[in-house]
Design brief:
It contains 12 helices and 7 strands. The protein is an alpha/beta fold. The chain has 2 domains: 3-177, HUPs (Rossmann fold), CATH 3.40.50.620; 191-278, 2-Layer Sandwich (GMP Synthetase, Chain A, domain 3).
């Protein structure tokens, strides 16, 4: 299907939606005139990219940052969606492990990383003539420990979902209405979020985590994390998956993760929760 045909089809779908929040979101995006969207392929940035693309068309650009903190699979999925919907899209290559402030991994790591990433995105946006930078933060994100959020605000990055009052649930519902295949996709987080604060981030421990999570992905699990505690791998699964995992896959995963270099493989009985390593960030 041609770019114009895709654009018209998307606009027809957008015009069918009757919602005060969505009307506000459309107005906000329209009023910015031109924008770059930080696009990772997760549900938030994909929906924002989709809506922005259909409102601003060629006055929008989606930028995906390729770094050591994003998995090969996540990058592949982001590129496939960008092509499917005809986004004006480019990749920004960035070596985040060259930044000592990031790799030392103190509780402000996300702040330093966001400054690095969005600083580069801002420079690229200026070079290409785009006025604003969008990110996919929503109102639920404000309550979590997110030092990176304040960093991007200082850089002038705009968060249309927050301005329009969108929660994560609102985003999923809108994505479902628009028939986006990622509407129920589990939340993404960079690989660095698996490494406890004050543990130096290296290519080796990032690869360990990526390979460990790939083992669980291959068995059909989703919405989980493998947290890296040196020689210990702590697995967080959805509560509904824990009983089945113990019965069917615990021995297999124990063997596979030990082959990756872990001495102990543990299952967190609290299950998966967003930002579990932030629970003790200020303590």
């Amino acid at each position: 299907m041609s770019f114009i045909a895709l654009l018209i089809l998307g606009l027809l779908m957008l015009n069918k939606i009757k919602s005060d929040k969505f009307s506000k979101l459309r107005s906000i995006i329209q009023n910015y005139g031109s924008a770059v969207v930080a696009y990772s392929g997760g549900i938030d940035s994909t929906l924002l990219s989709y809506v922005t693309h259909h409102i601003l068309a060629q006055k929008s650009l989606m930028i995906t940052v390729k770094s050591e903190f994003i998995t090969d699979q996540e990058l592949k999925e982001a590129l496939e969606l960008a092509e499917k919907y005809g986004f004006n899209h480019t990749i920004l290559n960035l070596n985040v492990l060259d930044n000592v402030a990031v790799t030392k991994n103190d509780p402000q790591r996300c702040k330093y990383c966001k400054e690095l990433i969005f600083g580069q995105i801002t420079e690229l946006a200026k070079q290409k003539g785009y006025q604003y930078i969008f990110d996919g933060s929503n109102v639920d994100d404000i309550s979590d420990y997110r030092p990176g959020f304040e960093a991007i605000k200082k850089l002038g990055v705009k968060s249309p979902f927050i301005e329009a009052g969108f929660t994560k649930s609102d985003i999923r519902n809108l994505a479902k209405t628009l028939e986006l295949p990622i509407w129920n996709k589990p939340a993404l987080a960079c690989l660095a979020s698996r490494i406890p604060y004050e543990t130096t981030i290296t290519q080796q421990n990032l690869q360990q985590v990526e390979q460990a999570e790939s083992c669980l992905n291959e068995l059909g699990y989703s919405g989980f994390r493998v947290r890296h505690h040196g020689k210990i791998a702590r697995i967080e699964l959805n509560q509904s998956d824990i009983e089945s995992f113990i019965a069917k896959h615990s021995n297999e995963i124990n063997i596979k993760l030990k082959k990756l270099g872990y001495n102990y493989v543990c299952l967190d009985l609290e299950g998966y929760r967003t930002g579990s390593l932030n629970e003790f960030a200020g303590k």
